[in-house]
Every structure is written in C-alpha cells, then in structure tokens.
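Case 151 in the screening queue. Each case pairs one protein sequence with one candidate compound; here the compound is zinc ion. For every case the pipeline is the same: read the inputs, emit a complex structure as tokens, and attach any notable structural observations.

Predict complex for case 151.
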Amino acid sequence: MKDEDEAFMGEALNLAQQAAQAGEVPVGALLVQEGRILGYGHNSPLSACDPSAHAEMQAIRMAARTLNNYRLPECTLYVTLEPCCMCAGVIQHARLKRVVYGAADPKTGACGSVVDLFSDPRLNHHTQILGGVCTEASAELLRSFFRARRS
Ligand SMILES: [Zn+2]
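Case 151 output:
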C-alpha cells in the first residue's frame, strides 16, 4: 500500500506543479478506485473564478461523472495538501473510503490541523485518513510558490 500511495501521490504532485505554472496555489489531487484513476485535477479558483475549484473538488467531480454516480465508494483520494472543511464535506458526501494527503495545512486543514471532521462520531460516514505521504515535496512546492510570489 505504501509504494502505491507514494506512486499516486507523485502523480498528484505533478498536477500541483501544473497549478503553479498556471499561477494557482500548487495543490493537486487524484481519485483512484482499485488502482484505476477516475478523476484528477489541480487547484484553479483564480482561473475558474470559482472559490470551490479546489484540487479535490475537480478530481471528485470528474470521477463522479466518469462513474455516473454521485457516490464514490471504494475510492481513495490523493491530495498534496490536507483538505479544507468544504472538501472534507464533499469527501463525506461522496462516501470516499480513504484520503491520503501530503502536507498538513495549519490554516484551513480539516483532518486534524485546525479541526478534525473525520473523528466526530456524530458525522455518520467515516473515511480513513492518512497524512504524511510525500509531505516534504508537497510542502516545498507551496513554499517555493509563495517565495516566488513575494519576490
Ligand atoms: Zn478544499
């Protein structure tokens, strides 16, 4: 599982790099079901004029269209940055099995950094969360993006 997680996270990192090239905050995501990529995307709220155009949303929307189903059971979402509250909500509505993320997000992270929407027993669907996969590469993309923007 670990090698597979790192391989898919490598793909998500490539997508994050595409976001940076487009001037968007570099976050990439992949939606995988039984080893098959069903959806992918990168952060694009600026170019899409859409505050919901996070990488996770793009990957989940694409996968739902691919499967022609609003629920995505037995699926794993790979994302380079810890999901926010909005994405955590969609992850729960889509009934994802697992989320694997890279860097923690101390400002908006909803998997434990700011809040933990996946550990509240009142929310009835429980997705497994695994953080810390390719953390350093994910965080370095973000750091270099913001460094370049400041200078
Ligand atoms: Zn989000």
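Case 151 observations:
- The first helix runs from residue 2 to 21.
- The domain at 1-146 is CATH 3.40.140.10 (Cytidine Deaminase; domain 2).
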